Structures are given as C-alpha cells and as structure tokens.
C-alpha cells in the first residue's frame, strides 16, 4: 500500500514510523509532515486542514490509505473529502468528530446514552456563568467548548477562582478556541487513564491504554500543556480495567452512535477518571493522543497498516496486530518557554538515533541542508522500551540525557519533566 499520514507532530512521526515498518506498506507520505516523516518518506506541502487539495493529490499519487492525525483536520472535514473521493480513510468524519470538537455536544451525547461522566452546566455568557456559580459547591472544572490545543481547561479549586477565570475569559475575549460557550463541570476524584478504542463503523474494540502528564512541571505543577510525557501500559489500575471500560464506556458509546446513525471510523480516545465507582469520561478525542501515540507505537507488532486499512474498509481485522508485553516510557523535550511561548529553533542535529529499544519522534519541524529547524514548543519525544516500567523509565531518561546533550552542543537547551512514570 501507498499510505499518507496527515499532520506534522510527534504523533504523526510515530504513526509514520510504525506504518512504514508494516509488511503491507510500500511507500509512506505525510502532509505537511516533519523532519522525521521526511527521513522515511515524502512530505507534501499541503496544510492538514485542506481536505480538497489533499484528496486531489491523494488520487493523483494513487494513495491506498490515509491516516488522519490531528483534531484540526477532523474538525475541518478532511475525512469527508477523502471518502467522497473514494479513498480509504482512517479517521472520523466531521459529524462524528464533534465528540472532540464540541465538549457540549460530547456531554449531551453521554447524557443521552448513559455514559458515566461528570455533572455539568452549559453556559453561553458571563452572566449565565456567574449565576450558575452562585449555587456551586467545591471545585469547578471550566472547559471551553471548542478545540483549544489542550489549553481550554482550567481546574478551579474553589468558586472564587472559577469566577475569576470565567470573568477574565469573557471580559477580555479570551475564551480558548474562540466562541462563548463553556461547560462548568464538577471535579471528579481519582486517577486519570487514557483508553483507545478502534471503530470500523459497526464494531468498537479496545486497542491500548496509557497514562500521560499534562502539566508543564514536575509534581504536576505549572500550566496545562499538550502533554509532557506518557507511559504504557498503565500502572496501579484494576486488572479488569479494559473489561470495565468496554462494558461501561465503549458499549453505550457504540450503541449511541448506531442509534444516531453515525458511522464512526477511526480511533476514539477516552480520557477517563478512575473513580471509586469505576471509570467516568473526562473527555473524548477523535484521534490518537500526543504524546500517548509515541509510547503505543513501539509496543505494536504485526501489520499495523493492514489493520488500519481493514478498519477504513469497514471490516476490522484485529488479528493483524498485537501488543508486546514490554512497557514504554516517553518524555517530551520542549523549548524553555513552553507553553507560554514557542520559540523557533534552527540548526538542530539531524541524527537523533538512540540505543536499541529507544526512539525519538520529532514534533513540528522541517528538514533541509543537513539540519532540522523546529517550530518550538514540544520539539521532540524520546521513548524507550523495557521489560518492566522502571526498566523502561531508566532507559528513557538515559536517552533523554544523551539527546539533550547533543542539542546543548548545537546551542539549543531544552526542558523536560524528570518525573514521568515515577512510581510511588
């Protein structure tokens, strides 16, 4: 197969890397791609959200399978354009993508179909938000309705802080993602875990699970980011985690999609809080997560490309791929000012090869004249496999230190959390 990956982040680099290693993959392309995808295939200079142009180029290049990475492409209806052109596509259409692109839509969907989730109030103005908060007790999770690149959620520990946040957002036109719609949610107590499920429009099966770290600093301090690290499989959860998620989350979601005549094709990311009474949904994403994908792909074996093609064709064949028992830990290296600012970096070393079982995946970047230029923010994700989670963690940080020193010699100092996958 000739396979196209849409997107330009470390998630897409990891997907491209695993797809290229599949026995059914003959050639790999990416749009717009990054330094990593350019090293193993061909990058196109087409924006990830330009569905019409992507579909035209995919037809002319005889692409057999398209894998959509970022949420912006899904929200822009890129899958709709591709399927209208008869191109097999792994990724939901715009309508199904509302499970991520609109938190209010997702909340209403869960309420309609009995999916466990936090109690919430929808507001559309500052007056409505302040009125709702008059009756509020305890912490409040404030969520902007639209896509906000991981920065549209604030956890206010008490009502005063919630009032301050909503006042700032509305009075200064700073609602993340634009618009004026917010969710005010009760704060769920427990531990977070991400479970990924694959759906071919008729069936939905658990795929993998992971834990990620969203705060910028050690000890979960600092502002929210797009993710500073992850590990898989999760540690410290019930042995029947997947069975509980299948029964309590995936089954009612699938029933709801079918009842509403929606054909979901792709991956559904379930961001869950594991509470005393079991799993509850914090959020849905309509695509693979970043940085979770970077720790899932090294654990995948078999014909991953063939598997995604079977899903895109509406006849999922889960026997084509499997997961290694090994653990994987990933650490994100970012520019010093992230997430406040994303300072571009130039002249980074092309060689980011690491030892056996370790891999580095580029974020937004370009390859040219023997060097890499990065857009800043989350520059690169370093991952490592190990027989146990502590083993994987040791190997990951050895690789982080090795790569960070190479960047230092190139004049670019990167920051990273030192507590990813630290147990206890």
Describe the structure.
This protein is of the alpha+beta class and 424 residues long. It has four domains: 2-93, Rossmann fold; 125-180, no CATH class; 191-323, 2-Layer Sandwich (D-amino Acid Aminotransferase, Chain A, domain 1); 327-415, Phosphoribosylglycinamide synthetase, C-terminal domain (Glycinamide Ribonucleotide Synthetase, Chain A, domain 4, Alpha-Beta Complex). It is 31% helix and 32% strand. It contains 13 helices and 23 strands. Strands 10, 11, 12, 13, 14, 17, 19, 22 and 23 form a nine-stranded antiparallel β-sheet that branches. It has a five-stranded parallel β-sheet with strand order 3-2-1-4-5, sandwiched between helices. A hairpin with a 2-residue loop joins strand 20 and strand 21 (371-374). It is globular and about 60 Å long.
Offer a concise description of the structure.
31% of the residues lie in helices and 32% in strands. It has 424 residues and is α+β, with helices and mostly antiparallel strands.
Index terms:
single chain, 424 residues, alpha+beta, Rossmann fold, D-amino Acid Aminotransferase, Chain A, domain 1, 5-stranded parallel beta sheet, 23 strands, 31% helix
Strand runs, count: 23
Q: What proportion strand?
A: 25-35%
Shape verdict: globular
> Termini separation (Å)?
45 Å
**By helix and strand content, what is the structural category?**
alpha+beta
**CATH architectural group of the largest domain:** 2-Layer Sandwich
CATH level-3 fold name of the largest domain = D-amino Acid Aminotransferase, Chain A, domain 1
Q: What's the Cα radius of gyration? A: 21 Å
């Amino acid at each position: 197969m000739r396979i196209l990956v849409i997107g330009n982040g470390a998630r897409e680099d990891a997907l491209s890397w695993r797809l290229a290693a599949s026995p059914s993959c003959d050639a790999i392309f990416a749009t717009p791609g990054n330094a990593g995808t350019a090293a193993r295939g061909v990058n196109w200079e087409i924006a990830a959200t330009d569905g019409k142009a992507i579909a035209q180029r995919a037809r002319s290049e005889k692409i057999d399978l398209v894998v959509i990475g970022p949420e912006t492409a899904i929200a822009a209806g890129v899958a709709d354009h591709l399927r209208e052109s008869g191109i097999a596509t792994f990724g939901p259409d715009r309508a199904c993508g509302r499970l991520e692109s609109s938190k209010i839509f997702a909340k209403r969907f869960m309420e309609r179909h009995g999916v466990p989730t936090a109690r919430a109030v929808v507001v559309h103005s500052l007056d409505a938000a302040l009125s709702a908060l008059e009756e509020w007790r305890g912490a409040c999770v404030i969520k902007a309705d639209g896509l906000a690149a991981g920065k549209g959620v604030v956890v206010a520990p008490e009502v005063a802080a919630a009032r301050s946040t909503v006042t700032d957002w509305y009075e200064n036109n700073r609602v993340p993602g634009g618009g004026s719609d917010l969710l005010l949610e009760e704060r769920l107590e427990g531990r977070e875990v991400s479970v990924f499920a694959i759906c071919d429009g008729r069936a939905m099966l658990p795929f993998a699970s992971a834990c990620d770290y969203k705060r910028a600093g050690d000890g979960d301090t600092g502002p929210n980011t797009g993710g500073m690290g992850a590990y898989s499989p999760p540690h410290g959860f019930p042995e029947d985690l997947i069975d509980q998620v299948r029964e309590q989350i995936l089954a009612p979601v699938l029933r709801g999609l079918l009842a509403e005549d929606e054909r979901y094709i792709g991956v559904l990311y379930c961001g869950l809080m594991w509470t005393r009474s079991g799993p509850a949904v914090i959020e849905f994403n309509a695509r693979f997560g970043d940085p979770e994908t970077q720790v899932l792909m090294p654990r995948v074996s078999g014909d991953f490309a063939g598997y995604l093609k079977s899903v895109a064709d509406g006849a999922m064949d889960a026997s084509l791929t499997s997961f290694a028992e090994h653990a994987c830990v990933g650490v994100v290296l970012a520019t010093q000012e992230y997430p406040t600012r994303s300072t571009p970096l130039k002249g980074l070393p092309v060689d980011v090869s690491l030892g056996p079982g370790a891999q580095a995946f580029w974020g937004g970047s370009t390859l040219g004249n023997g060097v890499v230029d990065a857009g800043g923010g989350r520059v690169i994700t370093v991952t490592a496999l190990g027989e146990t989670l502590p083993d994987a963690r040791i190997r990951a940080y050895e690789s982080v230190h090795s790569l960070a020193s190479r960047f230092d010699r190139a004049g670019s100092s990167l920051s990273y959390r030192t507590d990813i996958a630290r147990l206890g």
